[in-house]
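4.2 Preliminary Data

To establish feasibility before requesting continued support, the project team ran the inverse folding procedure on a target of 718 residues. The structure was first converted into the token representation described in Section 3, and no sequence information of any kind was made available to the design step. The complete token record follows.
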């Protein structure tokens, strides 16, 4: 094939005045006989980049990050990220060592404008991107038919719109509330494109239903892509979608590698130790689709996490290989097997990672859980997976994800919150929100530090804090404050707190009901029950617990065999991590599993302090005690509307606020609650606050410790 050096230039939409013209992207690319420009290509089983006339084609490893479309206070369909945000982020991403950003769908024109302007300032070292095309996911799942004419039309139009947006030749109008990008696209970002990934993670039931409904579908033969003999009907459908993408891009004089999205659930491997049939129901094979006259080629794109599906933890057939530390490692084994299968084309892991959160949704081998990590642990696990992907000879590793997104939902907390208000608060139990290496923290993250120093409370204005009268032995003063993530408490004690001699308890009352007496209240009865209880003792014992009659975890999963709790007791705060499965509904019996998420870490929450720990929830120094409590651990389903989970099923109830009931226990005796029984909780002041809406949400953007750990790992790779 005859190649020559060419400068790939943007085509400016006619009629735009010179002074309004976007900068002209310039990258060294190869020109094919047909006049097509190529910067990246799949060659055999590796990805290559054209490095110029003198160097020609060189192997390329995509080390990147996925980027979502949301900011705190917003849902992704609102597309609220500004051009300034993007330009600032691009610099931080490159400083981390990444060379590629992957986006999932068409973004607002500001994204492409910001990228072109950013790269125009550094033509020798541009930041590339992978453009995703969102498939009509809801319609596919609802209709279970990929060949439905309306589904096909919508997906094909989305592909055409995406190509036009990337090449700066589109004017898109979105229907109200559709969540789709709109505007006039003038900036040609095509020269900075690395490739295309079309579609989302495919629903296995939909894939199988499509295959079953159209068993005699003819092989697809397009101008640029075709299905191979033996391809399934759904794979033939995908071949057509890739071909349409190629046809649209060819109109702009470019070729880029094109892939479709895939994940472990629909991979071509066997998972004999997976308990759920759906997780091994059907395969979608990238090697059943091949390019025709498309020199840029194709590749396989997979989302691979170490904790899902469950076979990563339980399947002995994936526990054959050891990592560099000598540990049996199912993730390494899986990477090896998946790479061995894909011998004909390059393969990239386009999603991997773990979140830094209080909540956990799945447990994984070697502690690689979906949640429960601090920022340092998040970085160490992510860097370890990145290195494993690189060492397994993949063509890329794209970390999930760049920024935290509060709107996300998680299967084991979605029953407890309010869906259309998730974006308005920072729910650290919903781990899906906290995969980012760029943290989006609640507004007092840089105002109130949990460090045992009350001076920052003195700087709060009177409308930002409330003094709570607490006529209890040992408590001189008690103050409360809040933000989008936490209820904050600061107590001035009459003497320094010594966990070896005493325990401190702080009960929370939000609803009528709860526990009026408990072992933590020896000899005391309250006139109003508590829903939750904080116990502060030594570092290994401090936690928040939930009243047995309020415990919505036990209420929801009582049928799973959870034992009934004693009345008037406080239980550990737990989340489910896997349901009880029984044969024949599953391949084999699988026990119910849950984890404690109410442990409260003593530490320092100041990120500039050498002892900083991101999961810090309390600290005591001298006579000062400081605590921050995640809202959901207090039973709140949405603090922005002061809504809590009720005693009646899982309905949401608005409350006036929360009462805090403090006490100390020394040598088994409650101090300072003497007097006539019952103790008058109902007479204590209520901490209350004004609700807030999207426009009121404030947040602090800050790089996590995981960013710098990933920076070290990424910069090891040329």
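Position-by-position output of the design step:
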């Amino acid at each position: 094939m005859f190649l020559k050096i060419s400068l790939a230039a943007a085509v400016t939409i006619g009629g735009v005045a010179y002074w309004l013209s976007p900068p002209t992207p310039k990258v060294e690319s190869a020109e094919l006989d047909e006049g097509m420009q190529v910067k990246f290509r799949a060659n055999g089983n590796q990805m290559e980049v054209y490095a110029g006339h003198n160097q020609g084609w060189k192997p390329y490893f995509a080390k990147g990050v996925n980027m979502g479309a949301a900011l705190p206070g917003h849902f992704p369909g609102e597309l609220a990220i500004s051009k300034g945000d993007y330009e600032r982020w691009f610099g931080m991403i490159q400083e981390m060592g990444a060379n590629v950003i992957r986006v999932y769908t068409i973004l607002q024109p500001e994204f492409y404008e910001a990228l072109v302007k950013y790269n125009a300032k550094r033509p020798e070292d541009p930041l590339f991107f992978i453009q995703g095309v969102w498939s009509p996911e809801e319609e596919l799942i609802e209709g279970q038919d990929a060949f439905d004419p309306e589904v096909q039309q919508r997906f094909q139009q989305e592909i055409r719109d995406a190509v036009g947006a990337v090449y700066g030749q589109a004017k898109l109008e979105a229907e109200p509330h559709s969540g789709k990008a709109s505007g006039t696209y003038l900036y040609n970002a095509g020269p900075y494109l690395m490739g295309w990934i079309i579609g989302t993670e495919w629903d296995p039931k939909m894939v199988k239903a499509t295959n079953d409904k159209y068993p005699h579908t003819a092989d697809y033969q397009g101008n640029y892509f075709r299905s191979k003999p033996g391809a399934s009907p759904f794979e033939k459908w995908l071949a057509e979608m890739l071909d349409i993408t190629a046809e649209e891009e060819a109109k702009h004089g470019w070729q880029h590698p094109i892939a479709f999205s895939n994940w472990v659930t629909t991979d071509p491997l066997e998972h004999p130790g997976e308990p759920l049939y759906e997780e091994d129901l059907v395969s979608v094979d990238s090697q059943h689709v091949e390019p025709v006259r498309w020199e840029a080629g194709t590749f396989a794109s997979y989302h691979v996490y170490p904790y899902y599906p469950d076979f990563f933890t339980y399947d002995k057939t994936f526990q054959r290989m050891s990592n560099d530390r000598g540990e049996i490692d199912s993730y390494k084994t899986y990477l090896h097997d998946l790479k061995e299968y894909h011998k004909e084309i390059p393969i990239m892991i386009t999603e991997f990672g773990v979140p830094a959160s209080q909540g956990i949704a799945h447990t994984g081998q070697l502690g690689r859980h979906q949640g429960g990590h601090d920022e340092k642990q998040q970085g160490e696990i992510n860097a370890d997976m990145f290195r494993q992907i690189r060492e397994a000879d993949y063509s890329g590793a794209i970390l999930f994800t760049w920024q935290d997104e509060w709107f996300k939902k998680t299967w084991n907390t979605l029953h407890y919150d309010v869906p259309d208000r998730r974006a308005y608060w920072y729910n650290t139990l919903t781990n899906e929100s906290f995969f980012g290496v760029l943290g989006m923290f609640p507004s007092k993250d840089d105002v109130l530090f949990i460090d045992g120093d009350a001076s920052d409370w003195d700087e709060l204005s009177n409308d930002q804090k409330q003094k709570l009268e607490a006529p209890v032995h040992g408590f001189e003063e008690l103050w409360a404050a809040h933000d989008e993530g936490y209820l904050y408490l600061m107590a001035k004690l009459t003497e320094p707190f010594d966990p070896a001699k005493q325990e401190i308890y702080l009960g929370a009352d939000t609803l009528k009901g709860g526990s009026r007496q408990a072992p933590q209240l020896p000899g005391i009865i309250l006139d109003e029950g508590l829903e939750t209880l904080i116990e502060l003792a030594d570092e290994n014992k401090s936690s928040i617990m939930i009243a047995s009659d309020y415990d919505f975890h036990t209420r929801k999963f009582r049928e799973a065999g959870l034992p009934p709790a004693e009345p008037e007791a406080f239980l550990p705060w737990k989340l489910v991590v896997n349901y009880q499965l029984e044969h024949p509904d599953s391949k084999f019996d699988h026990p119910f599993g849950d984890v404690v998420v109410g442990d409260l870490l003593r530490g320092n929450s100041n990120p500039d302090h050498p002892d900083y720990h991101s999961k810090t929830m309390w600290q005591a120094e001298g006579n000062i005690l400081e605590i921050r409590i995640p809202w959901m651990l207090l039973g709140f389903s949405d603090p922005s509307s002061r809504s809590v989970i009720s005693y009646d099923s899982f309905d949401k109830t608005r409350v006036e606020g929360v009462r805090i009931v403090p006490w100390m226990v020394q040598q088994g005796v409650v101090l300072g609650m003497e007097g006539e029984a019952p103790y008058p909780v109902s007479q204590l002041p209520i901490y209350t606050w004004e609700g807030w809406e999207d426009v009121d949400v404030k947040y602090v953007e800050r790089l996590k410790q995981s960013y710098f750990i990933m920076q070290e790992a990424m910069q090891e790779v040329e």
